[in-house]
Amino acid sequence: TSNRMWGGRFAAGPDAIMEAINASIGFDQRLAAQDIAGSRAHAAMLAATGIISDSDAEAIREGLLTILSEIEAGEFAFSTALEDIHMNVEARLKDLIGDPAGRLHTGRSRNDQVATDFRLWVRDQIDAATEGLRALIGALLTQAEAGADWVMPGFTHLQTAQPVTWGHHMMAYVEMFSRDLSRFTDARVRMNESPLGAAALAGTSFPIDREMTAKALGFDRPMANSLDAVSDRDFALEFLAHASICAMHLSRFAEELVIWSSAQFRFVTLSDRFSTGSSIMPQKKNPDAAELIRAKIGRIFGANVALMTVMKGLPLAYSKDMQEDKEQVFDAADNLMLALAAMTGMVGDMTANREALRAAASAGFSTATDLADWLVRELGLPFREAHHVTGALVALAEKKGCDLPDLSLSELQTGHEGITQEVYSVLGVDNSVASRVSYGGTSGERVREQVARWKEQLA
Ligand code: ARG
Questions:
Q1: Residue among 201, 225, 203 at smallest CA distance from 315
Q2: What is the mean pLDDT of each run of 10 residues along the chain (459 residues)?
Q3: What InterPro entries does the entry give (predicted)?
Q4: 105 carries an active-site annotation
Q5: What ipTM did this prediction achieve?
Q6: Is 2 known to be catalytic?
Q7: Which atom of ligand 1 is nearest to the CA of 83?
Q8: Which atom of ligand 1 is nearest the CA belonging to 318?
Q9: Contact 344, 246 (CB under 8 A)
Q10: Bridging pattern class, strands 351-352 and 221-222
């Protein structure tokens, strides 16, 4: 038998394989709430403009509400033969209310319908990502405030570079995640326009009111070009691009937590709630949540590449290729939200091991730059010469198997005879971080200012 919705010109029904490749109901049933919201807005507008009667609109409204509660209760029988969520809902509406159901699709096409549903869904995810990021930033601020002056090694090339503070390191991620947050906020502004009423591609001859449906669905305005409205998925790509950047940030932080929680580093202890054991090695406590967060970028950026590749080269307007947009975005969104929530939980629960951080900060000649700076400041050496003198003293300490503050004054003076007892004040890690008071620097003082600034900004 031919299709109930578009079978007029067809004598035969589809091959089973055709049905299998064509149907999207297996995944686009996630758009049910958005689809019903869009249809309700459309029906109300059709009545307000006199295109359908008030009584038909009322029957449609009640029918759609019944369908929504059936779906929410898990009582709705989704049918693959009916292809997608749009036709499943409309067919059920016909069962429930009869003829008025057939008037709902006046001045509308599945092309503007799906574009509308999907925009509404992506908009919700943007809001969820924004909330997830706010929670994560909150957890980072708490860590930063508690450890504003705790000393730890700062690295470049993963080699000890200079001492920094725990708070400063946490606040670096606050900056990154807040840029992610602002990217999502920007994207929302750009994408919040309504495709509804673009119809198949050219608009419609019915006297529809697109402002009215746009407003009812929380959009700022209708999209200005009907071809564009049904053709582009740039809003989904923008979500995926921003999700990818955010997942990349999460991945870097997760990598640090994996390293920091190892026995070799012991910088942090992750809570039992966010760790797992081994089935064979009883001593193990593994940072699985961090590892999975580190990995999520794979599927999220994969989705970005997949959808970009689907969209490239598509002629205007709608092509069925675009049905492939949803699973990528669903999967990326689900995993981004999960990663954000897991990271927030881990950060909230983790304990920084102050002693281990401090010991590591003091090792590896981390105050060599402070020594060089002291030679410049106190003895007037050109920086390049100070660098050379300090390098020689590091080599001496390395040969002796000790650190810079462990060298005696006479040993230090083999580097430069002008060195005095005073120099020891800059060789300690606490003085080192406390001295870095330039704007954006690592001192506890600057960190506390930034914590206060962000708290105020997010309030
Ligand atoms: N299931 C389709 C999709 O996801 C809905 C739009 C179908 N439009 C059409 N002209 N066949 O894109």
A1: 201
A2: 77 90 97 98 98 98 98 97 97 97 97 98 98 98 97 95 96 98 98 98 98 98 98 98 98 98 96 86 89 98 98 97 98 98 97 96 89 96 96 96 93 96 91 94 97 95
A3: Arg_succ_lyase_C, Argininosuccinate_lyase, Fumarase/histidase_N, Fumarate_lyase_CS, Fumarate_lyase_fam, Fumarate_lyase_N, L-Aspartase-like
A4: no
A5: 0.97
A6: no
A7: 1
A8: 10
A9: no
A10: unpaired
